[in-house]
Every structure is written in C-alpha cells, then in structure tokens.
Amino acid sequence: MLDLSDIYLYLEEHLSHKRYTHSKNVADLAEALARHYGCDERKARLAGLIHDCSKEEKYDDLVYYARESGFPVDQESYKIPEVLHGPASVYVSKAVFGINDEEILSAVRYHVTGRESMTLMEKIIFIADYIEPSRKFEGIEEIRALAYNDLDSALLYALDLTILYVIEKKGLLHHDTVSARNFLIGNVTQI
C-alpha cells in the first residue's frame, strides 16, 4: 500500500480543491464516528479519504474502472452515472494505492448507494460523506445529531432524503439504495 502521505499527494493532484477538502473532511468525520462506535479508526480514516478518488474522472474512465472492479455496469448504471464513482474508486484504490482490505473497499464501493445489510464501516463512510461540515441542506442538522446517537436512524433519514431528492429531480433510484432503505425499515424505529 502507498504511504498515506503519497495518497494525500495523489488526491491533491487529481481532485479539485473543493473535492480534496471534502475528502479530508470525510476522513476526519469517519475517524471520529469510528472512534465513537468502536470501529477501526485507521481504516475509517483511509476509506473516508479515498471514497471519491475517481469522482472527477471522465465518464468513459468511470465505466472502465467500475467494470474492472467487478461492478456490473448495466442499463440502470448507465442511466444513473453518479453511482459509478463508488466502484470506480475501488479500482483506483486497488490499482494506484495498493489497498486490498475488503472492509475499506466495500465502504468505498457503497458510499454512494448504500446496500442491504450494510456493515458498520459502510454506514460510517456513507454518513460521514453525507454530513461532512461543508454540506448544507434542510435536515442535515438532524442527521448530524442522530449520527452520534443512533447510526441506523441517521442512515435511514439520509436515505429518505436522498430518495426524495432523486424523486423531485425525476431521476432514477438505484436498486441498492432502495434495498438499503427497505432493510433498515424492518430494523429501525421510524424517525
């Protein structure tokens, strides 16, 4: 695996200043949430740092990287290109950074869509990305408060807001997002 300082350098060179700052914020928040929930802080920090490492790549590269990481780029994915940077970032994490830890890679893979039966690390990265300090939207303060009290309720609220946003934009919902929400509904008291 590349030294952490080399990963920071790569990200600084390959991401816009705004995206690089976002990635550092997510890493900080992921580490804090991991500490709070007794999860591996080092892994959470790294997953948070690299979660968007391919976000600003060209569309054709995202498709290639996602396929190379084993993600089935099907018709649904073509119609929802925003989901491609999760699995594409898995490819970059492996090929460029030399990261092979499945817990980290899975958190990177599902930070956009979520999925049914998410692991603690996946939940932490999803929420850290969703509520990092530069984000501002209606409902975020409630999710920030929930994040340190009931991670599953925070995740459910975030998924609900995401789904409502996509519906308002007349966009397509990814099946993993729907599965994540449906799974949580059966396991979390509604907010």
TrEMBL record:
Question: Reaction catalysed by this chain?
Answer: P(1),P(4)-bis(5'-adenosyl) tetraphosphate + H2O = 2 ADP + 2 H(+)
User: What InterPro entries does this protein map onto?
Assistant: Diverse_Catalytic_Enzymes, HD/PDEase_dom, HD_domain, HDIG_dom, YqeK
Could you tell me which residue ranges the HD domain spans? Answer: 19-134
Identify the domain of life.
Answer: Bacteria
**Record has DNA damage as a keyword:** no
* Its EC number(s): 3.6.1.41
Q: Which GO terms describe its molecular function?
A: bis(5'-nucleosyl)-tetraphosphatase (symmetrical) activity
Q: Keyword set for this entry?
A: Hydrolase, Iron, Metal-binding, Nucleotide-binding
* Protein name in the entry: bis(5'-nucleosyl)-tetraphosphatase (symmetrical)
